[in-house]
Task: inverse folding
């Protein structure tokens, strides 16, 4: 399949247009969150969010049918529940917080798989890997709402979150816990929206991978957010094209394309990449 | 001379076991106090208690004015690319809150605070690229920015070279002369001698090493000159 043909499908076919639109909206929504997650060294912790939403999504699909809104509500409920429970259990059992998350997200993932196996008509593949090529109106609306909430929320939280990320002891304790909770709420909203497109296992990819690319592309926090949105958009477009050209599953193709963008940025990006470090080798950084 | 900070029968410590017992004193505006003592003698605990970061185990602290507190160590996240100016601007948090706009008068104050610690030329440098001493001075600028009445500084001279120490000591003298009360923990004997008063911690006790009569503006003026 030639490039012109791929572009023809991507811009001409309705399912591909919807996938592209949904993916681009999610890339923009996830970009500022991902930049802060990477700076806060929570790239892996956030993986737990993706897993945590699975049992809710599967349970809601089992009880209420596969409607997008029902599945989203279930996903949000267990996502929030697992996060609250993991934090509380870590403190109560005096476990390191990441150990608590590991227990709970593994449990959540397997509970989700078990629940999905119990009912007829639940597509486990779809829960795990998403169905970006089959986004319905409700899922697209959810993406748009999530993007609006994420961008408005991050604009409001920006200064507080930046200070808390830069110097975790600076803010009064109350302000710090409020800003962290709100940040996680925004993350949950965007992850639930991404879940329909990329599934429980891949949804976090759209948040983290562009933010990692952005580290090598810009030298300020707002610059990194813009770069992450751009990297995410490139990955979504490239991944969909790859999927159309090779018939590869679209979610996995997007995550692979996002990885390629991150790798490319790490190799030749203008900031701190391998290429950039060679140029300044010997000079004072 | 009005009182800035008073403490009575103060016992300080983490949890219920005090590290320092029976600390009393009254500090006026314009006074500088050096807090001295060996490692582990409780200097940081006393400063954190005076600042209100730590609840007293027993006794009372009365603060007549706003407090600026510099902790001994600041856990800077070097992965966040911000300029020295942005870091200093954190000092305006109590005034601006999460959404307040940084206006021209705020920007002038930020520049003045950076200049006071000799960092005006490094204002646009990324914080992660500053040296240890430069970053310490930046943290002092951040404490100074809200113009607090009482300055409680935990080892403000740590990591500073001779020029940096001279610069910060001149700053301390200038702030005291402007009517602020300054308490700083210091290790260097020469630096401690330049403070108006000295509070020495040893064996869970605090001892005033100088008569309060030595303190006051005449000493401060001598310090600045």
Result:
């Amino acid at each position: 399949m030639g490039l012109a043909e791929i572009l023809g499908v991507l811009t001409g076919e309705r399912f591909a247009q919807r996938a592209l639109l949904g993916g681009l909206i999610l890339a923009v929504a996830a970009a500022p969150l991902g930049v802060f997650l990477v700076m806060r060294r929570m790239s892996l912790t956030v993986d737990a969010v993706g897993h945590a939403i699975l049992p809710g999504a599967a349970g809601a699909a089992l009880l209420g049918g596969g409607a997008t809104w029902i599945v989203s509500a279930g996903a949000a409920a267990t996502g929030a529940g697992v996060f609250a429970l993991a934090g509380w259990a870590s403190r109560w059992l005096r476990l390191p917080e990441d150990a608590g998350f590991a227990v709970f997200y593994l449990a959540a993932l397997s509970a989700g798989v078990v629940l999905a196996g119990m009912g007829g008509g639940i597509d486990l593949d779809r829960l795990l890997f998403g169905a970006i090529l089959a986004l319905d109106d409700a899922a697209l609306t959810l993406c748009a709402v999530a993007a609006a909430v994420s961008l408005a929320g991050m604009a409001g939280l920006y200064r507080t979150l930046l200070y808390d990320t830069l110097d975790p002891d600076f803010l009064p304790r109350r302000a710090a816990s409020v800003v962290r909770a709100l940040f996680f709420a925004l993350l949950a909203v965007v992850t639930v929206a991404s879940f329909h497109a990329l599934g429980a296992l891949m949804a976090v990819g759209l948040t983290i991978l562009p933010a990692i690319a952005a580290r090598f592309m810009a030298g300020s926090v707002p610059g990194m957010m813009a770069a992450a949105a751009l990297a995410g958009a490139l990955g979504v477009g490239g991944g969909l094209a790859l999927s159309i050209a090779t018939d590869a599953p679209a979610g996995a193709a997007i995550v692979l394309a996002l990885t390629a963008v991150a790798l490319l940025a790490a190799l030749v990006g203008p900031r701190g990449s391998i290429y950039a470090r060679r140029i300044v080798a010997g000079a004072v950084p | 001379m009005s009182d800035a900070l008073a403490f009575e029968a103060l016992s300080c410590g983490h949890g219920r076991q005090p590290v320092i017992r029976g600390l009393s004193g009254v500090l006026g505006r314009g006074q500088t106090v050096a807090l001295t003592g060996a490692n582990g003698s409780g200097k940081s605990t006393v400063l954190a208690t005076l600042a209100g970061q730590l609840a007293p185990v027993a006794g009372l602290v009365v603060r007549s004015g706003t407090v600026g507190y510099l902790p001994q160590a600041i856990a800077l996240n070097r992965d966040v690319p911000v300029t020295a100016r942005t870091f200093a601007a954190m000092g305006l948090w109590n005034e601006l809150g999460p959404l307040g706009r940084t206006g021209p008068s705020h920007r002038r104050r930020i520049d003045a605070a950076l200049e006071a610690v000799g960092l005006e030329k490094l204002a646009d440098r990324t914080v992660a690229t500053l040296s240890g001493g430069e970053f310490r001075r930046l943290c002092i600028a951040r404490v100074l920015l809200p113009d607090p009445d009482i300055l409680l500084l935990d080892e403000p001279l740590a990591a500073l070279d001779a020029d940096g120490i001279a610069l910060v000591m001149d700053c301390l003298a200038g702030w005291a002369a402007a009517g602020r009360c300054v308490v700083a923990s210091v290790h260097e004997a020469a630096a401690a001698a330049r403070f108006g008063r000295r509070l020495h911690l040893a064996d869970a006790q605090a001892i005033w090493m100088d008569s309060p009569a030595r303190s006051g503006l005449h000493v401060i003026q001598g310090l600045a000159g």
Q: What stands out?
A: Residues 212-225 of chain B have pLDDT under 50 and may be disordered. The helical segments of chain B are 43-51, 84-89, 93-96, 104-116, 132-144, 162-177, 189-193, 217-224. The radius of gyration of chain B is 17 Å. Residues 128 and 192 of chain B are 30 Å apart (CA to CA).
